[in-house]
Amino acid sequence: EVAAEPPLLQNLNPEQRAAVTLPNEHALILAGAGSGKTRVLTTRIAWLLQNGQVSPGGVMAVTFTNKAAKEMMTRLTAMLPVNVRGMWIGTFHGLCNRFLRAHYKLANLPQSFQILDTQDQLSAIKRLMKQFNVDDERFPAKQTQWFIAGCKEDGLRPNMVEARDEETRKKIEIYQLYEEQCQREGVVDFGELMLRSFELLRDNDPIREHYQRRFRHILIDEFQDTNKLQYAWIKQLAGPGSSVLAVGDDDQSIYAFRGARVGNMADFVREFNVQHQIKLEQNYRSYSNILDSANELISHNSKRLGKNLRTDQGPGEPVRVYEATSDFAEAQWMVDEMRQLVRDHGTEPGFARKEIAVLYRSNAQSRVIETALFNAGVPYRVYGGLRFFERAEIKHALAYLRLLENPRDDTSFLRVVNFPPRGIGARSIEQLQDAARAMGASLHDAVSTMSGKAGANLGAFVAKIDVLREQTQGQTLREIIELVLDHSGLIEHYKADREGADRIENLEELVNAAESFVTQEGFGRDAVALPVDELGRPLTQSPASQGLDPNLPPAGEPLAPDADTGETLSPLAAFLTHAALESGDNQAQAGQDAVQLMTVHSAKGLEFDCVFITGMEEGLFPHENSMSDYEGLEEERRLMYVAITRARKRLYLSHSQTRLLHGQTRYNLKSRFFEELPEAALKWITPKHQGFGSGFGFAPNSVAKNDRYTRTSGGFNQDLTRFASPPVPAQKTAPAHGLRSGMQVFHNKFGEGTVLTLEGSGDDARAQINFPRHGVKWLALSVAKLTPV
Ligand code: ATP
Ligand code: MG
C-alpha cells in the first residue's frame, strides 16, 4: 500500500522533494534561475516544522531583502498554522540587529542604539575629516567610506589593518577616529551590525553555544552573494547539531563589486563537509524562448560551475526587440505597449499592471520612463532609487526623532541644529564642536558651556528637544511624530518653500508609515499574529505543536543577564530601526495595481509575467565602468541573465540611438549582448514609418493597433547601428512649443507654474515645470497641454 503523499510535497518534482526532505545535514542546492530554489527553501521550513523536527524558535532563514523575508513568512503561514514570531527570518542586517538588541550590553551598545545608513555614514566621516584637518582632496570621504566598509567586511578592526603605506596609515587613523565617534554617539553603521554580531559570537562562548544549540536549521537563500563576513558569521552560528542549507546560483552572483564571494560556495562544501549537493534543472518560470535566451547568453561566460536548465512550457512568444531613436521615444513606445497589455488584461496576452516590470541598469534611467508613465496616467511604483527614508525632509524629521531617543547622536544634532534656520551659524557650531571635543562630551551636553547670542540660540534648540522629549512621554508613535513635525518647524518651513508641497506630502506619508508600522507589523516583529502558548508555540492542533524537540530552549527564554529580546524597545526606537533597515518602498502605493520599476540588481529573486529590459546599449548595459575588464564584463552578463530570467511570459528588450544622461546626449551602440542571444528566439520590431535616422516623429496615440510594427528579418539595422557614425541630431530650429525657461505657463490639472528646464525637440520635447501647489514635474510637451500666461 502506498501512503498518500503529504500535501506539502505535492507540486514538487522528485529532486525538489528530495531537497525538502533531506536528512539533518549540511546541504547545498546549486541551481539556475526559476528552478524553485526559494520554493524548496520555504517548503523545507514548513516540512521540518510539520514533522516536529524543529520548533519555530529553532529556525533561522536568511533572505536577500526584507520583502523576500515577508514573502517567506506569508508563504509559511499559508502552508501551515505556525507562529512566525519565534522564527528568525530576515536579511543579514535585520537578523544582526535583532541579535544586538537582545545583547546590547554585551555588545557594548546603548539599548536604543541607532543605525547610520550610507548617507549618514558619509556625513559622519566628512565631519570627522574636517575636524582633524584631513585633506579631502587626497583622501576623498567616499573612498574612506569604502575603505572602512571593506575593512569591516573582512572582519578587520583598525589595529588589525596592515599599514602598507603612508596613505593606508592615514585611512586607518580615520577609521579609528570614526569608530570612536560612533561609539561615543551610540550609533552603528551597516557593516558594524554584522561585524559586532560576529565578534560577540566569536568571543563569548556561552552566547555562541546557546545560539548553536538553538538554531537547528539555518537556511540561506541567494548564497552566491554572501560576503566573507557573512559567511564567517554563519560559521559561528552553526553548531554540532545544526544543519545549514545553502541555496544559490553562481550565474546570478551580481554583488562582487560589493565584496560578495562566489567562492563561499566551494568553501562551504569543503569546510562543512557537505555530502548533499542537489541540482534542480527544471525551470518552472519561463517559456523556452526566454529561457533559451538566458542560457545562450550566460554560456558566453567562462567562469561557471556549470548547470543545465530546461522547461516543459513550450516556446511561448518570441522575445521582442525594439530600437528607438531616443530614450524618450523608447519610453513612449513602452508606455503604449503597456497600456495595450493592460487593456487586454483578462485575455491573452494581457497582464495586470503589477505583473509588468521595467528593469534598467542604473537608476538615472528611470526618470524619463517615469515621466512617460506619469503623462499617460499609468500608475507605477519605483523600487530602490532614493529610498523613502533617505529623502532629505524625511531624514530631517527622523533626526529630530532620533534626538528624542538619544541626545548624544551628534550626526542628527548637526543635521537639524540649524534646520529650519534658527540663526545658528557655522562659526558657532565649530565652537560648539571644539568645546565638546575638549570636554569629551556630546554636542548636546556641550551646549551649556556656550555663551552669548550663539549660546542662547543653541540653548533654545536643546531646550526645544528636551521639552519635546518630555511632552511625548507615553504618547503613541503617531502622536509623537505629529508633534515633532509641528514643533520642529519643519512643516512651516516647507510651507514657505516654493518647492515644499511634495516634501510636506512626504512628511505626512511618514505619519502613515509609522501608523502602518504599528498596526500591521506589531513593531516589525510579527508579520502574522497567531494565538500562541507561553512558549510561543501555535495553539492550533498541528503536528508542529506536538512532538517538539524537548531539548530545545523555548524561543523566548532569557539567555544571558542582559538579554532582552527587544520587547522593551520603545515604539519610537523600533520605528527608527525600521526606518534605517527597511527601504520604505512599501509606503504610499503599497497594494496598488501599479507597473513596477526597478534596477536589475533589485529584481533579484522576483518574477513577473511581463518584463521590459530597457537601455540595452554599450556603456549602459554592459555598464561603462565594467566593460574594460573581463571580470567586470562577466558580472554584467550575469546581471543580464538575472534580468532575462525574471520574465514568465513576455520579454521585451529595447535600446535607443540617443540618450540624454547626466545632462548630455549620448549616441550609444546597441549592446553586445544582443549578439549573444539566439536569433531564433527573437523578434525585431520597430515602428512602421520610422527607419534609422528618419527623424524623431513617433506620435504615441496616432497609430492603430496591429498596424504599428513591421517585421524585418534578421536584425533590424544590426550592422548599421554598430558601424554607423552617430546620427546627426535633429536640426536646431526654433522649438515649436515656443516655451522658454522662466516662462509662466498654465496646465489644466496643476494650474500655473514656472518653466525651469527644457530638453529634447519635436515629439521628444519635455519641460521641467515648478507648480507651486504640486511641486516640480517633468511633462512631455507633445502630450501636456500648456498655455503661456
Ligand atoms: P531565482 O533563481 O530567480 O531566485 P528560484 O530558483 O528561487 O529562482 P522560485 O522563485 O522558487 O525559483 O520558483 C520559480 C517559480 O516556479 C515560482 O513561481 C514557483 O512557484 C514555481 N515553481 C517552482 N517549483 C515548482 C513546481 N514543482 N511546480 C510548479 N511550479 C513550481
Ligand atoms: Mg529564489
From TrEMBL:
SUPFAM superfamilies, per the entry: P-loop containing nucleoside triphosphate hydrolases
UniProt-listed Enzyme Commission number(s): 5.6.2.4
Gene3D superfamilies: 1.10.10.160, P-loop containing nucleotide triphosphate hydrolases, PCRA, domain 4
GO terms (BP aspect): recombinational repair
GO annotation, cellular component aspect: cytosol; DNA helicase complex
Transmembrane portions of the chain: none
The keyword ATP-binding is annotated on this UniProt entry: yes
Matching InterPro entries: DExx_box_DNA_helicase_dom_sf, DNA_helicase_UvrD-like_C, DNA_helicase_UvrD/REP, P-loop_NTPase, UvrD-like_ATP-bd
Keywords noted in UniProt: ATP-binding, DNA-binding, Helicase, Hydrolase, Isomerase, Nucleotide-binding
Region annotated Disordered, chain positions: 537-563
Binding site for ATP: 31-38
PROSITE patterns assigned: UVRD_HELICASE_ATP_BIND (PS51198), UVRD_HELICASE_CTER (PS51217)
Any Pfam family matching the protein: UvrD-helicase
Catalytic activity annotation: ATP + H2O = ADP + phosphate + H(+); Couples ATP hydrolysis with the unwinding of duplex DNA by translocating in the 3'-5' direction
Domain UvrD-like helicase ATP-binding: 10-287
Tagged with keyword Nucleotide-binding: yes
Gene Ontology MF annotations: 3'-5' DNA helicase activity; ATP binding; DNA binding; hydrolase activity
UvrD-like helicase C-terminal domain segment(s): 288-605
Family per record: Belongs to the helicase family. UvrD subfamily.
Protein name: DNA 3'-5' helicase
